[in-house]
Design brief:
seven-stranded parallel sheet; alpha/beta; 31% helix; seven-stranded mixed sheet; 20% strand; homodimer; 17 helices
Chain lengths: 517, 517
């Protein structure tokens, strides 16, 4: 234990001016406030335990924390063989005391969940205080990133004080399991890595044109006839429950998306007459278009499906898509043309789309359709000039908004493109302070046209970490992408140690390389 | 066994005109000539054996073939649990008879090795004829790709006749183990996948600026001080021998590259005074530049190192690099300036480089230096207009040439960029037929700035397969990239089945997905 006590009040970003502690600032994403010093304390896996503070609203039996203690013990001491919380009855164990102000413990993370935490590391103990169990998870993650090993392999942790909270409450990651099926393990591993970066919403774009892997209870033919394979390329109800629970234990919301009326080709396989038959002149062409908006059966089906989906997925939101609807098939269909005439829509098919889209759609507000106050819109298109205009426009109309346009990391390119993600400024647009508060967060998207389990992990990590920091950390403190580089390089090596197949940022090495298996 | 016998004489590329056999043409790369028919024969792992023809120049005890029989048995029958050649004494086994015209068996594949083979599949047997064991390996690979399983899981093979040989003799793949260390397993797995695509030269860019992982017998300090880590990030002599042998058994040459005088920063760590000290005015700046060409000790060292390297690597060629030499450090050094004056080089540092570069360098011929007749030059720079001009220029001067410029597949981009590799035309430049014959092949390069074992395999495969076919197959027969697409899609699924972490080309699925582990 070092007796040298150069207490250093760090404003991250000015660290280099103050000198002193040589180690790179270890936590990713950057906490809002972190002070540490060169003073450090040895840690032993045999004398380390987690405990609930006497005043905590949460105790043993809270599975979110029980599971987290086990998980973080192994993450902190990877060589300790896993399991247990280290309480071997040793005298003077290093104690991590966790004090949660409010239960419950058995609920789900939600919009507005308070993820604040305070973490103090001092001789022989760490004290973690939070409002909710979700904040405690964030604090445990930070704690696990403060533990280092010296050249001799000995574990230690520096004297540290952290006060932290996320800049944005919605920090999402989208996976697409329709363009390619993703095995369950790939999804679970992604959730693990999300938790390491404090991402808190898993946007599951579960079905789309090419395949329908979601095994519906009410409409089993949807996956039976719409999945790539009815047994090997589906998500059973059990699989879905596993994903939801694995996410919950990591404080991650699962936002399921059932995109319609476009992006539904595969739905038609198991639900005949759902999709609009396209016409060539007077004759059906044999192909199908978007969901048919003029049949009552359509709405019976959609309502039933959504009723099931909302019962299966506990989050209070479902994403309904509504994007990229190709009007040409609707235009070609005589019944639809007649309907348009009857309804007085003229030739404006956006009106037909608005007729279809339920009032709680989440979509790009480019069609000018009516939306409820509590709708959240996702901005997914466009270059900076374009999406900044959209941000202005949508927030001016009083709607809450999510940004994903600059974070389509399925768009790969040669070189350090993580820097493009990192330098995004989500609130840089013309608007009042009130407007800027309507930006509730964003998400990094990994669309699946060219992605499956063979390349998902190296394509996601560590590139998605850039957006993760942009969404959590203070923008002024994390304005330098060059200062982020060494931190992200280290964080990437940590991800490797944790079994995440994260690709390199640039030339170099990690102590423990990925061996490939 | 089907009795229907629609014998079909296929010119690949016209297959669709003839109709008949519905299956996609299975072999990648496309053989020069292949005819198959709908007639097919069942195969059983319990009644399948390889044997040497009575007249073969090669028999049991030839390890290249013994090992290949074992390997291909498992590739053909993946569910059979591995090992053995299937000779269970069953009556009427399907026999693969191998007839090699010339030994030896215990040699190494070399420039000019004859890889031709003929393969005939008829009832109860396949006959494989080749000139060398290397040709036999190519034939076994094709045979393994002809075996399919029907919907019931039963193995079969169609009546087939193949006459095949490579268009180009040099079909290489470059790996860079200096920018990132690649674990031995990653290299061996790459060799496996190369063999599946009939690539036959492993260009091992083993050392460079950032690290020196090659553990030299004579100069152990090179890796001790130049590797990322002297134990965990090196290739021992044993590792190198494993790579060479693993390659040899697959008919792959190992072309080691020790690039100099540039690209040598890491050499200076373990070999002080090798590199040129750079100057700022009259004072050494503390940094170092290319190898110092004016010291005798440099040439003693280089000669010794290369003597060792040529004894370790059995191929008759070593790649000596010689690319991207930055003259600014040489310019700044007073001793070198004096030397230039003494030698009458003026201020032309290309003359100094020519003074340095041994007569058997392999490099881009842009410096106009003198080269021996038997030097082979590698064209690695430039857009098509540029490299086509280089091809004209170099072949006009009578030099043999390799093309890699359009195949830097470390340059990733969004979408199906394999198509860019596939549509390269290596002999499309202004020149005589004689000149065009001087194009002896090319190589696909995976430089390592952004690549290590976490992303090597999905970035290599199946994108490298495009160049593999361009280098093996007839260009007219493989002129349609759209026809290649379904074949490469199938081949990619086959690679997955064989345990290669090959990424998808586009939306879809394979029966067996990569599970991630």
């Amino acid at each position: 234990m070092s007796s040298r006590c150069n207490l250093r009040f760090l404003i991250p970003g000015l660290a280099l001016l103050l000198g002193g502690v040589p180690s790179v600032l270890a936590v990713w994403p950057q906490p809002q406030q972190i002070r540490n010093s060169a003073e450090r304390y040895s840690l032993s896996a045999r004398a380390f335990l987690f405990k609930h503070a006497d005043v905590s609203a949460v105790r043993s039996g809270c599975d979110v924390l029980d599971q987290a203690f086990t998980r973080y013990f192994t993450l902190i001491f990877p060589e300790s063989g896993g399991g247990g919380t280290g309480d071997t009855g040793a005298a003077d164990p290093f104690t991590v005391e966790v004090n949660v102000a409010e239960g419950p413990c058995d609920g789900y993370p939600a919009e507005g969940s308070i993820e604040n935490y305070k973490l103090t590391v001092s001789p022989g103990q760490a004290v973690l205080t939070s409002v909710t169990v979700w904040g405690a998870l964030r604090g445990l993650e930070s704690l696990s990133q403060l533990v280092e090993q010296d050249d001799y392999g000995a574990y230690y942790i520096n004297k540290t004080e952290i006060e932290d909270f996320p800049r944005f409450q919605f920090r999402g990651l989208l996976l697409d399991t329709s363009r390619h099926y993703l095995p369950l393990q790939a999804i679970l591993k992604t959730l693990d890595a999300m938790a390491y970066s404090k991402l808190n919403v898993f946007h599951w774009h579960i079905v789309d044109d090419p395949s329908f892997p979601y095994q519906s209870r009410k409409y089993p033919d949807l996956s039976k006839k719409g999945a790539y394979h009815p047994f090997t390329h589906i998500y059973t109800q059990t699989d879905v429950r596993r994903v939801i629970e694995h996410a919950r234990l990591r404080g991650i919301r699962v936002l399921a998306e059932f995109d319609s009326p476009g992006h539904t080709q595969s739905w038609g396989n198991g639900q005949p007459s759902l999709l609009t038959p396209c016409y060539r002149g007077d004759v059906p062409s044999g192909t199908y278009g978007p969901v048919n908006p003029i049949l009552d059966s359509t709405y019976v089906f959609m309502a039933n499906l959504l009723k099931e989906v909302t019962s299966v997925f506990p989050d209070s939101y479902i994403h309904l898509g509504g994007d990229e609807v190709d009007f040409s098939c609707w235009k070609s269909n005589p019944d639809i043309k007649a309907f348009m005439k009857k309804m007085g829509f003229g030739s404006d098919f956006t009106k037909l789309e608005s007729f279809y889209i339920p009032r709680y759609v989440v979509e790009v507000w480019k069609w000018g359709c009516y939306l409820c106050e509590d709708t959240v819109l996702e901005i997914w298109k466009g270059l900076p000039e374009e999406y900044q205009k959209e941000l202005s426009r949508i927030t001016k109309a009083g709607h809450r908004v999510l940004l994903s346009a600059p974070w389509y990391i399925n768009h790969i390119s040669y070189g350090q493109d993580w820097r493009n993600s990192y330098t995004v400024q989500p609130q840089n647009f013309s608007g009042t302070e009130e407007q800027k508060k309507l930006v509730i967060g964003g998400e990094v998207c990994m669309w699946g046209e060219y992605v499956d389990a063979t390349n998902l992990s190296p394509r996601l990590w560590p590139r998605a970490c850039a957006a993760a920091e942009r969404l959590w950390s203070d923008e002024v403190q994390t304005s330098s992408v060059d200062q982020a580089f060494p931190r992200l390089t280290d964080f990437r090596c940590r991800l490797l140690r944790r079994g995440i197949q994260a690709e390199p940022l640039y030339v170099g090495h990690c102590k423990n390389e990925y061996q490939g298996i």
